[in-house]
Amino acid sequence: MTTTPTIPRRTVLAVLAGTGVAALTGCGPVRRAGSAAERLPDLLLPDPLLVELGAALGVLRGADRQTIPHAVATADGLAVYATEPEGADTAFWRIDTATGRASARVTLPGRWVPQTVSAGGTTVALTPEGVSVDAAGRPGGREVTPVLIADVAGKRQRLELRGNFVPEAFTGDGTGLFVLEWLPARAPDRYRVRVVDLATGAPGPLSTRAKAPVPPGAEEEMRGDGRQAVLAPDRSTLYTLYTHQPGHRHTRDLVSGRPGNAHAFVHTLNLTERWAYCVDLPHPFGETPARGHAMAITPDGRRLVVADVASGRVAEISTEELTVRRTAALPEGTGAAYAVADGDRLFVAAGTTVRAVELAGLRPVAAWAVRDAVTGLVLSPDDARLYVGRLGAVSWHHPVTGAELGRVAVPGLVGLHGLAARTRRPPGPLYRSQLSAHEWAGLRIASPAGCEVRPRAGD
Q: pLDDT by residue (tens digit) across 290-335?
């Protein structure tokens, strides 16, 4: 029900470290990459990117690098909210990712770190510095969770939630906050998704897909691996992929009395209407390591595609019907999986292989190898470049041929978060304008032999 016990949704959405790159705090001076990039061409990054650098977020613009240790990005990548200690209190400000300009800093009483931003990008939920998760994705035991709601003007509201909570997302109208409630509070081993009414500060259950209140005792409790969360393009729905939950019972099973036995499913959370529904994935999804699973949504928001590289399967979910429409085979792979989609293709990566899957036929059409293990995939706004996160670098490739178009060093890189200042063109035929008719026809019928895609890493 969230971006994962292993990958919390708030990090669905991380310090530049290493030789030659300045570790910048907040909006300090931005420096050019130095000796760490000596063996790479002095290229400018074509599109601004948000990257994960250990526990920090990095903003890459051209040749500039900026590191923000305690930060959370807006859904559109246009801004990052950051905090840093200021005596016993906390400085809080907003950074424009396109320019690097920062708002005036405001002081929040006490120590806080940002957890999630509203869909409109104006409001932030923060928790105390000590409210974090461990390597297994579990928070420490506690009986009360303070939560601060703030914007660029400063503190708006403070909540004292009785129990062990982690903020996940705001409701569409901004009057509620979705949270993970960990149970039992002092020694958590499972969690459920609830919604806090910001007017009263009281947490309560979600609704069913039929918009009826979930009956007492029928709220789902998660024990498995939350692998990845994806926000719909219109920001109305949050999809979270869960694996390794044999015997799990959905709310509909608890209400009907059915036993339930889902090894993997996509938890669908409607941020506007406050209901949740789980789409079960067929065997063998969820029976292989969680990190070998990855999920992506098409730009029109109508198709959600899930890949399991370890078992070599891919499934397409209709977001309108909330059903699995079809499944198909993929070449098997190993390692952490990553995925991204445009209107025509799904790109999947695992290990050192990147693979393209044609969505019309749900079949692999191309694959290519890169020299280092992949740590993330991002498409450029015009779909002309596929960015590939690698160990200490980001490269960009032609999305049809896989040819490397450029590469820059990014010491400390552990993942790609997404585009900064993102804009996307309307869905439509991809790549056609970049190739001659002869090249296009040849590539469309070419054998995919030797092409492989990297899965999305995250564990």
A: 899 999 999 999 999 999 999 999 999 999 999 999 999 999 999 9
Q: How far apart, in whole angstroms, are the C-alpha atoms of residue 354 and residue 365?
A: 11
Tokens standing for 89? 């209190």
- Give Cβ neighbours of residue 433 (< 8 Å, ≥ 6 apart): none
**Tokens representing residue 381 in the block:** 């706004």
What the block records as the tokens of 332 is 């098997």
- Judge if the upstream peptide bond of residue 184 is cis by omega within 30 degrees of 0: yes
DSSP secondary structure string for all residues of 231-256: E-TTSSEEEEEEEEEEEE--HHHHHH
Contact 158, 150 (CB under 8 A): no
- Cβ(85)–Cβ(132) under 8 Å? no
Give the tokens for residue 358: 């044609």
CA distances from 351 to 11, 271, 391, 458 (A): 22, 34, 11, 12
Neighbouring-strand partners of residue 393? 390, 409
Residue linked to tokens 């998760």: 133
User: Taking the model in full, what pTM does it have?
Assistant: 0.80
**Could you give the 3-state DSSP secondary structure of residue 438?**
helix
Is residue 20's pLDDT more than 50? no
Could you give the CA distance from residue 277 to residue 317 in angstroms, rounded to a whole number? Answer: 13
Distance CA 252, CA 218 (A): 8
Q: In this predicted model, what pLDDT tens digit does every residue of 40-89 receive, in sequence order? A: 455 789 999 999 998 899 999 988 999 999 999 999 999 999 999 999 99
**Separation between Cα atoms, residue 79 and residue 83, nearest integer Å:** 14
The pLDDT tens digits for 109-133 are 999 999 999 989 999 999 997 666 6
User: Which strands sit side by side in the sheet containing 313-318, from one edge to the other?
Assistant: 293-297, 303-308, 313-318, 323-329
Does domain 210-459 match CATH 2.130.10.10?
yes
Report whether 183 contacts 150 (CB < 8 A).
Answer: no
Rounded to a whole number of angstroms, the distance between the first and last alpha carbons of the chain is 17
CA distance 221 to 184: 11
* Domain extents in the chain: 81-204, 210-459
Give the number of other CB atoms < 10 A from CB of residue 426.
7
Rounded to whole angstroms, the Cα distance separating 109 from 250 reads 40
